[in-house]
Amino acid sequence: MKLTKTLLASTALTVAAGGAIAEGHMAGDMTLVSWGGAYQQSQINAYATPYSENTGVTITWDESSAEAVAKLRAMNEAGNITWDVVDVVAADALRLCDEGLAMEIDPDEQLAPAPDGTSAEDDFGDLLVGDCFIPQIVYSTTFGYRTDMVPEGVEAPNDICDVFDLETYPGMRSLEKRPINNVEWALLCDGVAKEDVYDVLATEEGQEQALAKLDTIKDSVIWWSAGADTPQLLADGEVFIGSTYNGRLFSAIVEQNQPIGMMWDAQVFDLDGWIIPTGLSPEREARALDFVYFATDTQRLADQAKYISYGPARLSSAPLVGQHETLGIDMAPHMPTDPENAKNTFLYNYEFWADYRDDIDAKFQAWLAQ
Amino acid sequence: MTDTTNSGPMLAADGRPLKQSLARALRRQKIRALMLIAPLLIFIMLTFIIPIGNMLFRSVENDIVGNTLPGTVEALEDWDAQSAETLDDVVFQNLFIDLFKAAEAKEHTKLGTRLNYEQTGISSLFRTTGRNLDDIGEPYQDWLEDTDERFKDGAFWYEMMSGSGGEAILEERRDLWAALVGEGMAGDIGFTLSGEVAELLPWTAKAYSDWAIYTAIADEDVVAEEDPWEAVYGALGIDLRNADTVAAIAGYSGPGADALRAAVANIGAMPTTTFRDAFAAEDEDWLKTENWQTIKIYSPNYTMGYFLNSIDMEKGLDGAQARPENQQIYVKLFLRTLKMSVIITLSCILLGYPVAWILANLPARSANVLMILVLLPFWTSLLVRTSAWKVLLQQQGVINDLLVWLGFVDDANRLILMNNSTGTIIAMTHILLPFMILPLYSVMKTIPPSYLRAAKSLGATNWTAFWRVYFPQSVPGIGAGSILVFILAIGYYITPEIVGGTDGVFISNRIAYHISSSLNWGLAAALGTILLSVVLILYWLYDKIVGIDNVKLGG
Predict the structure, then answer these.
(1) So what's the architecture of B330-550 in CATH?
(2) Which residues of B touch A237 (CB under 8 A)?
């Protein structure tokens, strides 16, 4: 089924193509998939509205990014792909690529070069994870804490190991209900050097060591599964400190004036970006590629940072990051990539987690259920 | 009278035997009835039975290994996985041919993901090796092209491989392609394999056929004009390692015979690295026995592996064995799901019975108002109701605030009412309560109040009248409500996910995780099948013990 479609598609493409694909051969509407909330709004403002104004394309949004991999797989089996461009985290993009559900992208051919002529491949650099992923933003998973709950006479937490220090910083913590990030932090605070973390984690003993460290705070942890949980728990005073995406904390602190402070130590960088599903009709595929070319150029990525504190994935966009659109504050100091914030960072290890995800998750869940 | 007895079977008015005529009429009636329900039947088949059957089937389906690595699986048959003897190079030669083809069609990473569920590390092994398979074939390509310029030319290869008599092999390779990519590879490819070459160079014939089919059908190129994959050069290298082939080439006189003889003459310059070493150079893990044991264990088309996994066991070399203790979770979750569903059902009976009794005994007008109160939660989204419980139950929440204000609880020791099993039980009891109250109410409505009065007038105390007269009559309502609540509870997952924390989650939460996050649909299907069977068994037990006829959903 899939192959027949690709065949039909490529035949049609050969017939239609005489040179560049003309405007007339692209679909007139498209469905974009994203995460909802402030993040999707920033994409609407920075990409979708200008694109619709330029081209007259109608854009529909679907807030399904969290289940994108499973849904795309189901759509593919049913032979009916209803999405055109999908926003996913890099790890999911890698899996979609592995499953043959996302189209391979040639950055130099299909993405815009930087204004100074640097090729897209160099401009995105290391962030081009896998063959299908079109990077958009760098976000980080980091900690926020209640400034009014810091015990008297103690300085505010500024070290990842403060999370594990129940004596100095009593109170509940909130951590994500999955091993990724938590086990790395646990090892870091159990005396493992940063560069050795994944070597240690690859061993049975290392995994036990990480869980044993987490065990020391297990009774004081609320486990979250949605990014909105930690800001909510912090706002309600349910927890003292908790991990979540930095943009969520930014909006709780700056936009909602909650008494929350950021702790950037050992923040874990991750990437979010677009993929184009395989099996689209040539018109829709051409439209999707055209949108992605526009939406990931230097200016557009810099524009998105006006609305949300996630760093643009292009090197050439960084100098263009300005002020918040409505609040008028400088965005640079709130970016996870700002040198002040990025003194001690981690980059999500995609290869490692692609291999160890199932194994460590099984152990982590068994540990949680004990 | 004598007429009818003599003329054999009784006849209907139209002269046919009555029995036949009756059967006909009945059949017509049955068909008509069937036609009436046909839309519903087809609808249910299409939208319910078939998808569920399909999903259940995934719990045993495992043809991906055999479809992706057909030659390798065959070559592994002679390998004794238990003794972990060194693998023969022929396994790696097959792996090269199979994996090259799979990588071209981008199917190898799917297999990597599948096998990674069983053996950590296979995912990246397949992904990284799949990228660099060219490196293994290239030395052979360089050697052949240095030996004879013509090996560079696609048209020369086409001439050498073309002929007749190799149709069977070509069709076999075509079927293997179809199995690999999951769809037909039918169509004219503009190439027919020479039987003579196929006999002389079996590996090359297979690899060239694979390439030709893919080039013609998937890439839509002309076979005669394209240069073959590196895999074809590698395959010729494999053929030329065979002394019999080398000897046979001397007597061969078909197209390309002189080029082949030149290759034989230059065999001293052929790469000597074994395929085993070539794979090991790409990734050391190809030498790990565990990886090969996994491939061998999971090579059959059907597997019990997912089911074993669902009961905390795994498929080992000697059959089923228990998983390491630090990975055991599913049995515990199944038992917890059952236990908590029972507790929730009991709480629903305790809370629902008095409410239903009041509803059934109040005058119609006030009963209706109460009924609306019972139904109101039904009209609110499940997520909203659960989130409302979050606001109530959390440590800084309404209930704790109230208790602290009243002085029942110390501010420093607020009760932990959610993110544990207590939270799940409270929230789910509330959410499922209407399913208990409604059947109870409809049964109680039919119990005439005069029975109770009669019992009392005959001298029974209030309690005896209730327990001996009223309660037995309401039992069918309890039965119906319990079945509804229990079966709904056992499959719940949104509420436990939100308020359950770690010890309040159900098996459904793991099923959801495997469906949407880990993409291990086979395991999710196996867990789902077990859950379904548990419900059916309990239903059967219930029927045996209580009797399903004693269940009433209404008057």
Answers:
(1) Orthogonal Bundle (1.10)
(2) 396
